[in-house]
Amino acid sequence: MLSAHPAFRRRPTLGQFAKQGGWEAAWSFPAGEPPAPEILRAYLGGAGEVAFEAFFGDAFFGLRLQGVAAEVEAGAQACMAAMAEAADGAALVGALARRLGCDGFGRKLAFAEVGAVNAWRSVGAFRIDDPSPAMPWLDALLRAPVAHHAMHRKAIEFAFEDPMPHWFALPVSAPAAPFAIDRTLLRGALQAAAHGGCDR
């Protein structure tokens, strides 16, 4: 599973929530200083959807919670509790499976996307339906708007639909502006997914 990738072998460093896919206005906080339950409740404001991400340096894991307001709030509080107890990415995924009452994270890959971190929607992501390490789509990616956007780091997200929408993301850009896509990082991320137990 991708949670065993070396990039996830550390404690979470940052958590964030975004409603309705608005990552450009994500609410971020240090993993060691999670919001109090009443502050999280006020942020949610009765929302029927919210996404959560936990960062491990430049790598991150995320999931989307959907349902009636009480279910979404309970799930968001479970994310906070899981992040607080997690020693690394594998522990976080395990804690979320227990607290959310589901299993099967990271098993059946749906697709991958390369996007700009916290600007996924506004910059536009490049979708990869067959994320093969051979990268037959590389030229198209390098012509896409996301490859020329110089203001945000780039990542590849490996997206899964069961048991709920969730994703693992690994960095694929240089560490400083203009954040050019690094082919070696990209190929390494694809190989990790191919050998990490992700079924198609």
Question: What is the secondary structure topology, with strand pairs?
Answer:
Layout: E1 14-18, E2 27-30, H1 37-44, E3 49-56, E4 59-66, H2 69-85, H3 89-100, E5 109-116, H4 120-123, E6 126-128, H5 138-143, H6 145-148, E7 154-160, E8 166-171, H7 183-194
Antiparallel strand pairs: 1-2, 1-3, 3-4, 4-8, 5-6, 5-7, 7-8
Helix pairs in contact: 1-2, 2-3
Please, could you describe this protein's structure?
The chain is α+β, with helices and mostly antiparallel strands and about 200 residues long. It has two domains: about 1-100, no CATH class; about 110-195, no CATH class. It has seven helices and eight strands; from the N terminus they run E-E-H-E-E-H-H-E-H-E-H-H-E-E-H. An eight-stranded antiparallel β-sheet has the order 2-1-3-4-8-7-5-6. Strand 3 (about 50-55) and strand 4 (about 60-65) form a beta hairpin. Helix 1 crosses helix 2. The relative contact order is 0.18.
What is the structure about, briefly put?
Helix content is 32%, strand content 24%. The protein has seven helices and eight strands.
With strands numbered from the N-terminus, the spatial order across the biggest sheet is: 2-1-3-4-8-7-5-6
Give the helix level as a range of percent.
25-40%
Strand content: 15-25%
Question: What structural class should be given to the helix and strand makeup?
Answer: alpha+beta
Q: Number of DSSP helices? A: 7
Count every beta strand, where a strand is a DSSP E run of 2 or more residues: 8
- Would you list the SSEs in sequence order as H and E? EEHEEHHEHEHHEEH
Low-confidence blocks of residues: none
What does the largest sheet look like?
A: 8 strands, antiparallel
Distance between the termini: 13 Å
